Amino acid sequence: MTYNGTTVSTTNGNTAAVSVTVPVLGSAVSDILINCSNLYSVSGTITGLDANASGMTLALNGSVLSTVSGGDTSFSFPVPDGLLASGDTYEVTVQTQPTPDTGGKWQNCAVSLGTGTISADVSNVVIACTTSTYTIGGTIVGLTGTGLTIQHVSTDNAPTISETLSIASGATTFTFPTPQQSGTTYTISISSAAVGQVCRVLNPTGTVLGGTKTTLTDSSGTDLNTSGTTVDPNVTNIIINCESGAMISGTVTGYNGNGLRLRKQYTTGGTSPTPTDESIWISTNGSFAFPNLGTASQNYTISIQNNPWGPSQTCKIQDGNEAANTTSITATVASTPVDITDIVVTCTTNTYANLIVNIVNYASPIGAGLVVINNSSGVTANVSVGDTTANLDSNVESGKTYDISVSTQPTDHNCIVFNGQGTVWGSGTTNVYINCEPKYNEVVTYHWSARGYYRLGEASGSFADSIATAANASLNASSDAKYVGLGLISGDTNASAYFTGTGYAEAATTTKYDFTTNLSLEAWIVPYSLTGTIIDKGTNYSLNLNSGKVQLCVGGTCYESSATLTLGKKYHIIGTYYVGTNGARIYINGVKDSSHTSSVTASASSSKLRIGANSSGTNNFTGIIDDVSIYRYNLGDQRATLNYRWGSRLTTEYDFAGVLTDSSTYGNTVTATNSPSTVTDENGLANGAYSFSGTNQYMSISSGISTPYTQSFLTNKLTLSAWVMPTSTTSGYIVHSGDASSGYGLRVASNRLEVFSGTNVALSTTTLPTGKWIHVAAVRASNSWTLYLNGKQEATSNASATVTKPSSSSKFTIGADSSFSTNFNGSISRVKVYHAALSAAEIRNLAISVPTGILAYYSFSSGTGTDTGFIGNTGTYTNLGSDRLGLTVSAATFDGSQSFSLTPIGFSNSQSSTRTLCAWVNWSTLPTSGQTQTIMQYTDTVGLSVTNTGGTYSLNVEGFSANLTTPATSSWYHICAASNGSSYTLYQDGTALTNTATVYNATGSITKLQIGQNITSANGFNGSIDDIRIYNRALIASEITALSGNK
Q: Residue 604 to residues 517, 541, 583, 681: CA-CA distances in angstroms?
């Protein structure tokens, strides 16, 4: 044994717990006596205990306790206190009954086989728990009649309880005979009325909660009520209230609107009631009753006080004595009142002769042929020149929805629908307008009916409202927005505005833009943050980004797009609104993204219109905003699509990514022949491009390009754009529209890029590289073609060169000509055809591979230090030489003492910001040992530089370094640094390097972007730099590989 409180073993195997305290006397202890006997436990089972019970305790011989939890099925007592010696008596009792937790039931638990004399372990004690039952009853007020019967129904337990109870005249209390378990729900109703009275049940439904009957006492135990009142757990709160008189009631049928109101007016007879005139609103079909009873011999008139609206309906009333087409009836209460229950109100929905649509500007000399359709019913109407309205459906019911569009356009015009979707309410005349405009108007005039239109291209001062009722939006502060050189409307020379995320533009007026029922908000954007306000009029309405979702808010209720936008990409967004099913709609790039049922009628707001922030001057937008329009109409699906088409000027757009659909909204899907295979594109996207073998592989549309513009228009102003990676430079068409004798195409010929239209029209001076992605484009304007390679102008055709328009049977092909014989050998991606002559700046922007999130891009293809990206971080530099592809005047050259600098827009100096810096470099002279050459820098530490340390060359950025594979002079290298906000990954020629230093250096303020030297104009670069890129995100490895793949 061990000493003092340990367990000791005895000779016969029994155990005993001992605890002996002995003072230390300095001599051996020999007088401890251990008395051993057999010890046994007591345990058992529990049945029926509710899982939501708590607080139950069991006692052994009145003192040893065992706590039981809800749902337990067994119990035991703790050791050693719960062990008994052989021959001891035992008694198990319930010391504390369980109480219910939330959702639980009151229960009572009883013990069986709980007593005896112990001689071995006892395990057969049973604790049986049953749910307590309670009576259901209450009080009766005012019962003087006979014949009252009430009913109780409970369906929680099988079998269902349904019992009735007859109540004697003059009774003041009642109790149903069958007690119900705790937790049971009940419903009490009147099954037979008392003669001459109307009885109503108050508190008719509920749940039997239960509990224990407890006398109310104070803290000293003194009875608080001298009569001994107790808290009764039985249900006693049901009240049956009886009044003498007749209930005047009936039923309503055919009602499916809002606002039906019935009226009861006392006329003569009996005792004049209070009130003499009462009304009730009806919410749905079914029974109704006036709240105040009619007394003996009173006469009443019952009438339709208000007919329903939304939809508009007409209701008639009748009883057993009246015809169905009346608007009022009379009712008389019998001398011994009996309920009047035979009143019937029948409602029918109003109809109108025609659904009427307004026509605007459809007059001579516009050609005939306009056909309008209600897509909800399929009914069409032919509109004659000069008509100002069109009549569609006949016998139109109020409440019917409509969806109006143009099914056939007239000759030489586009007719556009406004407020095309809605619901017929009070008349057949709608607020739908169809406006007809010439097809060939290239000036951005698609803002007919706009209440406000801001092009946001002014070089300074305020943003002008281009609508006649002008309300110019002036900048809140000069730093809030920067005017950039590239607008977001294709073919439009107007600039756009970059909002810095700190301010906004604000209109001068508060009332011009208040709308209540129909409105549309429109803008072109490039977001550099995924949350921010674009357009705001306080509580009236706003158009926002919320975590990348396009959000339209009207009257405090917001609706969001399904799609999530991507940082740094161009989008056209529209939010339209009217009250009704699918009344709130969001459009992204001409396609309806989502529809939401809307019921809010907006109210005017005292807030001024703001662009770039909300009415509180917060939630500021970061990015580019262009061409903001505000309409007092619901533009509808067709107009939203047309506005995108006019702004993008795209006729076809194939991003591929493994699919052949056209994302321009014209639906010019091509069909592949002989299975050209998918390959990685210029952005590093797997399956983002197609590879053509050069033999009988191509894509085509046999009927030519679908477009609302005539083919002759497509020979006037036109742009062809694509990314290509030739495998060989033998002749082959990249894209072609036409046939053997008409049309035009962009092809490889004699190792060069060529525009061909029956004869060679324009031929590039630079030989095309093979195995490398290159952007090609051809622009036609004023009967002249201009060719571009990687954004650099290569050749211009003779101004007199003409193009024969494609015939009606011509084909549109990718990878071959119309005869499928001159096939392209290589890969093709991002094929686009524009019905506009894009500017040189727009072509340079299209020539950016991996464009998403780019803050600045210097390709030097313009012959200066112009930023090709959207924001316009533009400087001036003219020391230019040939780039890595052999394009002349397309790379910046430096001798160690030269650089160019600018004040950048949108850059971040935060260490936690994500960013990527990339450039192509070619050294004329490498840095000597101990020397650093700077490629670019825009804070004390954020930039790219290369240092020679004893013959080892390291790439450096913001305290991070990695050793380069030793570079040579007169060779091009691609270097990148990508930060995820916590560390950098450094790259050389698309391969990630191993970092040798990984500690951030503190970043200073951004004063300028310096290229060719550091920001103190030292550590100059000696050689050529090209394709400088700065992103606001960390590019992934495949994107950086794609950028370096042109080496």
A: 11, 9, 19, 51
